[in-house]
Amino acid sequence: MERLQKVIAQAGVASRRKAEELITNGHVSVNGKVMKELGTKVSTNDKIEVNGVPIEREQPVYYMLYKPTGVISSVSDDKGRKVVTDFFPHVDKRIFPVGRLDYDTSGLLLLTNDGEFANLLMHPKYEVDKVYIAKLKGIPTREQLKSLDKGIKLEDGMTAPAKTKFISSDRKKNTAIVQILIHEGRNRQVRRMFEAIGCPVMKLKRERYGFLTLIGLNPGEKRELTPHEVKQLRTMASQPRK
């Protein structure tokens, strides 16, 4: 038996908080009866409807993909381009990416059918650390990198403090390799941060998500997360940042 709002969230209908609002506002029924009590528990045999539409209850699954460049972080694309779910032809569940990586960015991406889990990981109050390796046009100074570490102003506001690490540079080609750790999830954030200091990104890869790394995977390869890894991510994402 599980709480009604959790089941709704896991089905990807809404976040748990939104599911609670749907319940208290009388939009949810169980076996034909409207339920407004948040403590209501349901079994796998109960028929749950939201606004008269039955929810599809699936066993939750959790995957990690090494997304190649040239792939859309979506379940479909109206231009016929390759999407991340194309790498999971054997999965019969309605999985979707947790957040996104740009078309021209590679690296670690999570996919699941657990809406509550996805919302928890993406919530701005809890977002987990993400580590990227960027190849830059131009060689940033120590002061420029420090400005990213302190937080830099973008068109949508100040970024949270980052952690940068200078890896290497090529003076002849005027390029550099820099590692950056952020926990926010704004659109094209890493690229915009480096553009703001005058060193545009030429190539970008997400190497780490929380404690998960790409070790053992090649571009286009994936694996299922272990129950322990899922539990660790839930714990990590549930701890508000100070």
Automatic annotation (TrEMBL):
<dbReference type="InterPro" id="IPR020094">
    <property type="entry name" value="TruA/RsuA/RluB/E/F_N"/>
</dbReference>
<feature type="domain" description="RNA-binding S4">
    <location>
        <begin position="2"/>
        <end position="60"/>
    </location>
</feature>
<dbReference type="Pfam" id="PF01479">
    <property type="entry name" value="S4"/>
</dbReference>
<dbReference type="InterPro" id="IPR002942">
    <property type="entry name" value="S4_RNA-bd"/>
</dbReference>
<protein>
    <recommendedName>
        <fullName>Pseudouridine synthase</fullName>
        <ecNumber>5.4.99.-</ecNumber>
    </recommendedName>
</protein>
<dbReference type="InterPro" id="IPR042092">
    <property type="entry name" value="PsdUridine_s_RsuA/RluB/E/F_cat"/>
</dbReference>
<dbReference type="InterPro" id="IPR020103">
    <property type="entry name" value="PsdUridine_synth_cat_dom_sf"/>
</dbReference>
<dbReference type="InterPro" id="IPR036986">
    <property type="entry name" value="S4_RNA-bd_sf"/>
</dbReference>
<dbReference type="Pfam" id="PF00849">
    <property type="entry name" value="PseudoU_synth_2"/>
</dbReference>
<dbReference type="InterPro" id="IPR006145">
    <property type="entry name" value="PsdUridine_synth_RsuA/RluA"/>
</dbReference>
<keyword id="KW-0413">Isomerase</keyword>
<dbReference type="InterPro" id="IPR050343">
    <property type="entry name" value="RsuA_PseudoU_synthase"/>
</dbReference>
<comment type="similarity">
    <text>Belongs to the pseudouridine synthase RsuA family.</text>
</comment>
<dbReference type="InterPro" id="IPR000748">
    <property type="entry name" value="PsdUridine_synth_RsuA/RluB/E/F"/>
</dbReference>
<dbReference type="GO" id="GO:0016853">
    <property type="term" value="F:isomerase activity"/>
</dbReference>
<dbReference type="InterPro" id="IPR018496">
    <property type="entry name" value="PsdUridine_synth_RsuA/RluB_CS"/>
</dbReference>
<keyword id="KW-0694">RNA-binding</keyword>
